[in-house]
Design brief:
- Belongs to the binding-protein-dependent transport system permease family.
- It is a single chain.
- By secondary structure, the chain is mainly alpha-helical.
- The chain has one domain: MetI-like fold, CATH 1.10.3720.
- It is built from 12 helices and no strands.
- It is globular, with a radius of gyration of 27 Å.
- The two termini are 43 Å apart.
Amino acid sequence: MSAQIPTAPPSGAPTRSAPPDARTDVLRARSRGARSGRLGATLAGFATLMVLWWALTHPAVVDDPILRAVAPQHALPAVAGLFARGVLVPDALASLYRLLSGLLVAAVVGIPVGLLVGLNRRLEQATHSPFQFLRMISPLSWTPLAVAVFGIGHEPVVFLVAAAAVWPIVMNTVAGVRAMDPGHVLVARSMGATHREILLAVVLPSIRPALLTGFRVALGTAWIVLVPAEMLGVRSGLGYQVLNARDQLAYDQVMAVIVVIGALGFLLDTLSRRLLERRRAAPAARATRAPAGAAVG
């Protein structure tokens, strides 16, 4: 009885692949490993930053009393002290309120403008140079006009934050519209869709990744502008708290507020990045599930 030699399946025959559950487990394991690697790298980076901070403010390196006062062994306890006094939480909430208000104004203005410019080639050519000119003006340059028009309070700060955040939103909206497949719009028109239906069902879903990227850039820019904008005479906010601590010559508290500003900015950027990654991963996940569903059917 002769031994049978296994032969390869015909070229058109389907090949066996790993079960979906096994593939899912492998992907989850890789994802956990990647997250662990990123977490380790992040912790190592922050540890290096702390060591440099401590070394650059050590009495053996500097003899300036102000620099010694902002050392981590003084600034970090000052953070806890400001929290215990009930100072940081109200100021952080005031800053976040102004930040979100400015971003809302920037979105209300920037998205429609970006859609109009992106959908009209002649309008884009006419507005390109003026937009680039206005975009290169520092938002803080508008401070005297903002105070003259809106007075002292929330309004000028919100205006300056919106002036900083509107351009990333406009530019990314235009880029998203320009990168959209025009065939989608043609198909929708051939099916009798109205302009409103095309905008809501075709254009906005297609430019969602570009919009989210624009919001992330706008968030970072607005947060950077917010702190100096809160030094205009308002009586709350993290920027005001920096000036208040400086006037008291409490430089450990100045550094404590700076640390809180950096921590909140890092947290906001991380949340926006996670949202952007999740939105980008959702279409890919649906695409990988579609063939399995079709095979079962």
